[in-house]
């Protein structure tokens, strides 16, 4: 006689199956019909997806086979990551994207190609690049096709995309800011800052679109909506170029600073003071208690935790200090509080513009300078170090799966994250990708990744840069 209701047996099996790996779960599904039905439970696969990647693209639930969508998502993403981890010849394609007649100053991914939220069944990937030849070009990186090219204007100096990856924003050498539709290349709006160098930062607050621009004169100008309506302009760097511009994950704070003066401190500004300035209230702005800022990054998994590399007593001595930013409101006023969390010295010997700093999570910082790459914990423990490049590292790309480094030695190094029993999260070197010949090129200058590709720009000796697109198709 069956003494237990069937659903209780299923619940017990589901609980037991939570202790299985994906390989064991697949094996268990072939034992019998009942085990197969339990092993196909969407909750089990959803749980494994979120445990492994934390963030997943919930659009997969719109699939026709809803009961299998999380399983198919998990298996397909594991398969793609396995291909990118091995990097075997024949496991990827390399396209050279030619057409720019000047230096590539940057490029951005568009159309849902995010390493954090990939659309695994969308095989197309679009990258938009900006050049000193005055054009923006959009490419299908899988087949090397040029999708559109903007009209020629003054030499471009920077490019970013908006958070939805639908709009491209550029700045040129005259200080003209333009926005472009990513799919069509149609110009949407323009705004003149009259600055020969602009640092661009786009973000959304409560579904409202904003663009904050750092200028060569030391000010930050904030524009709103697709029309680029001016909201505010404030001085932050006393006539020195603003080349550090960051927004916190909770979008409440903007950090603005310069690498060009060893006596200045970066500033933290309350975002609302820029997006909704008030004539009756002063700008909420606070200097961070360090000088000679050389690199900075907000920790992506914290609301407003800021890591800064700066001078430590002497310009040749450097330190990394971490701060928490918050606001204290009283009956009569509001004050910004910048509280130190951790600080430790660094043995990095490099010019300020050569230090690169990124963060993976709340306890993992990635630094690059000269030919070396380091991974530090928040408390200053050195988790890993690499010196595989033979020339200086020019760019790094950090996501939840891997770190890609680009170097002047004309190679890309790919490293993947792993959990070490003793040291916790660390990096493991995997393989390298080559970008061509030094007889024609001077090395890589930029690198970016999505869930199934790596794109980098190669500086040509003839002044015509080329994009290299490495795709790992399923």
Report on this structure.
With 474 residues, the protein is mostly beta strands. Helices cover 13% and strands 46% of the residues. The chain contains 6 helices and 32 strands. It has helices at residues 6-17, 22-28, 33-39, 42-53, 69-86, 271-275, and strands spanning 93-97, 104-110, 126-131, 136-140, 145-149, 156-161, 167-172, 176-181, 187-192, 198-205, 208-215, 219-224, 229-235, 244-247, 253-257, 267-270, 285-287, 295-298, 305-312, 314-329, 334-346, 356-361, 364-369, 372-376, 382-386, 393-398, 402-407, 411-420, 424-434, 441-449, 453-460, 466-471. Strands 1-32-31-30 form a 4-stranded antiparallel beta sheet, with no helix packed on it. α1 packs across α3 (33-39).
Tell me the number of strands: 32
Unreliable segments of 5+ consecutive residues? 1-5, 63-67
Instruction: Tell me the radius of gyration.
Output: 24 Å
- Roughly what percent helix? 10-25%
Q: What is the average per-residue confidence, as pLDDT, rounded to a whole number?
A: 87
Shape: globular
Strand-residue proportion? over 45%
Largest sheet properties: 4 strands, antiparallel
How many individual helices? Answer: 6
Give the helix/strand class. mainly beta
Strand order of the largest sheet: 1-32-31-30
Calculate the terminal CA-CA distance, rounded to whole Å: 50 Å
